[in-house]
Amino acid sequence: MNQKVTVQFPARAHARVAVLQKGLKDNFADVQVSVVDCPDLTKEPFTFPVKGICGKTRIAEVGGVPYLLPLVNKKKVYDLNKIAKEIKLPGAFILGAGAGPFQSLGFNSEFMPVIQTESEHKPPVNGSYFACINPEDGGCLLEKYSEKYHDHGCALLANLFASEGQPGKVIEVKAKRRNGKLNFVTCMRQTLEKHYGDKPVGMGGTFVIQKGKVKTHVMPREFSPCPLNSDEDVNNWLHFYEMKAPLICLPVFVSKDPGFDLRLEHTHCFSHHGEGGHYHHDTTPDIVEYLGYFSPAEFLYRIDQPKETHSFGRD
Ligand SMILES: [Zn+2]
């Protein structure tokens, strides 16, 4: 990997509870934010390989949209075990959103990393999912990665939240019935940006969309042969879906970019009913219910930042 920078975030978890409560109240009718013990994430609906999202928390952004657009750069392939070592946390539990490992799959896909990486004491456990377009009918096809593949790859771009996977205190966020315009993650991110201003803070974790439906996208299996140069081009290339609850989401977000060409928020979701993809927003504001568990990140790592960049394809 070409290059790495590290930023230390201020750790002020408890202070964020009141901030988030107030900010979410502008966008949802019913909001409850509190500090709780992390529920056992090995249980349904999460079924993660670890119990929690606590201990030595970090956010890592690897690669970026410029490696996918306007045209794909097929040299940009990564390995999550190596990324865990790069962020000085071998054995890390990593979740988040990225592009699937085309180098193994042979096609492009959405990736939902959920992986306990390898350490001296333990072999890796890959609970990741990928979603691709079903060539038969154009629908979404969600599969557990380890059912057919045994590597720990990802590609092009990834927004990752890493921790020791320990139980511990987390921020629980319950939000029901959306009456504002922002999606759940954007609302939290903008709330933190308003409060912390130029000092970036970051969070990651998981939330469940318990009721309602959401707009998602899945990338085509083939990378675009002609350059995609605008949001409009990208939206014509992507496949959009409306997916139904319950969906388990893997959010990673940073309040403000300290100058590393960050994708400030990125959330992928999976389910146990065959649907999964990139989360945009719910389409059923009157009945939607979100239940999330978040951990503040102590560090931000920027790995293999693209030298040439642009601003489209970030939605
Ligand atoms: Zn995505």
TrEMBL record:
GO terms for molecular function: hydrolase activity, acting on ester bonds; zinc ion binding. Monomer. The keyword Transport does not apply. One of its GO terms (cellular component) is nucleus. InterPro entries: C11orf54_DUF1907. Keywords: Hydrolase, Metal-binding, Nucleus, Zinc. It comes from the Eukaryota. SMART domains: DUF1907 (SM01168). It is found in: Nucleus. Residues 19-303 form the DUF1907 domain. This is DUF1907 domain-containing protein. It comes from Myotis davidii.
